[in-house]
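seq/struct pair 1
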Amino acid sequence: MTSNPPGSPPSIGTAALRLSICIPTYNFGNFIGETLASIVAQLEPGVEVVILDSGSTDETARVVGELQRRHASVRYEYAPERGGIDRDMAKVVELARGEYCWLFSADDIMGDGAIARVLAATSHRDDVLLCMHSTNSLTMELIEPSYPVLASDEPAHFQLGDQRDQIRYFQLAATTEAFFSFIGGLVVRTATWRSVPLDERFVGTCWAHVARLFLIMQSRLSVRFLGQTLLARRGDNDSFATEGVVRRYRLAIVGYLDLGRHFWGEQSPQTFHIRRVLRREFPLGLLLRAKAACMRNPAKEDRSLLDDLAERLYADGSWSCTARLWIYRWFPVAMVSPARSLYRLLRGRSPRLG
């Protein structure tokens, strides 16, 4: 691994570093300049930016290098071979020197004043800080001003090493972002992260960082939900979707259900709520559209895999799950597109359907 190129400014001292903004990246040269501009505009003493470039072949090094020459607090590390997102996240936190690490995607945009708000929240010395994000298009046009994490946007504090508080937290989870899926919403105390090693069993799943925090949660993990939208997430830029939507869905559905079973068991309340949250993120309409995609493009989309995902999502045995699974199995694929168009028409005419 090589680091700061010749001619770059000297590294900043480590004594008073409070926050490392850690960015793993691969071939995001078209976006990382805008991402870094949103960050360096609000840097203050005690904050560094650490970029781990895992073998990029595009303009990433040039874009980062130009910015680095103007900002001593920006560090750039280049690894000649791709490590994969699980290893890259682990490695970039190893490189961090701050008391806290804010994992950040190389194509998202940090909101104004976000760093100051996170620094203020670190004074509570919790293990994890969670924030929200807006959802945007590839060109950063606003789609949704605030993507949900918990059932309420009110700030809250949880001690997840306590069984009752842990169950309460899982009950409040609205999306898998409550379970640390989105790295841009996740600020972790560095010592907490490093208290357990990378679990090789989860490398390649995209969720090794979640497994790390779930393991720590078995004995302790203080989580502070900030209830604030601190960044804009760029959509339609998912490198994991190149092999088809069904395999992309599998990453989240199988990945999280396997995590639940591994840490708490198939029949645990925690796994029940993981399934509930996954059903919200992958509703019946989405599965039916994926089913239609399987019919249109069977070479790319795996129908048997999709059927298995539906079975696992609706495995709770409740009447509502049974009914949705029946609809998934028997709803005519040819009617998916007309039904969706009718729903959109009715939704546009009646706010009550929204």
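seq/struct pair 2
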Amino acid sequence: MKVAFALLWLIRLLPMPAIGALAWLVGLLGYALAGERRRVGMINLRRCFPEMDDSERRRLIRSHFRYMARLALEYGVVWWSSAERLDRLVTIKNLHYVTDLRDSGQDVILFYPHFVGFELCVYALNQYVPLVSVYSQQKNDQLDAQIYKGRQRYNNAFIVSRQEGLRPIIKAMRKDHVPFLYLPDQDYGARDSIFVKFFGIDTATITGLSRISQLARAKVVPAIARRVGNRCELEFYPPWDNFPSDDVVADTQRMNTFLEARIREQPDQYFWLHKRFKTRPEGQEKFY
């Protein structure tokens, strides 16, 4: 792991176009060698984009592998490059949707789905806004320590272990109205999940966005990270009105419907290598 960290430290000295070129090669190698991840990605795309033919899906997955390689190679940039460099690399749009709420004394949940620019964007954002986030411990101790240290680089991130539950999250949010960065768009198993539509598929989806919003009396502001050439763009959307409602199923469906629309705008930038449909309703066939 020390060798990998050393390589990332050196890579971050390169200009961004050079990192992109290296990621292009690493991504193609990953596409060729990571057969199981490639298979998962193709299954996801066949389910979500039945109108595509397989050649188009393969092109999309190859592009996605290159994006994922770039995400990995840029960890040296987000961990060790200057704050000024990160600021130059990310354009933040409509941050006022967050700051206006905070200034008015309201708490905020940032609905922040898994797009490939999410790491670079959140490190740039954390320079302007303190954040609460949930942390899952990594299996490798050295990697775990470095990720945790990296997330604390500006000394204004409040990190809560996934095992600690909701109480410390809400407590951290209420201190100075710190936004909670929330990524609820993966398959976390049957516990606390319901089945709502995602690309027309019954998809196990956690109800946390609705539940935490209600418990914390917080407004939900979606935030989407995009790669644009050698830079990134982080766009905030207007706070959701009438959320949460008295219908947690409708709230969770609203989240998936919004996310699906954003994915269709940049399909190769979403996390397709995750087994998003692993949990199936009782009696339905397994996808993977």
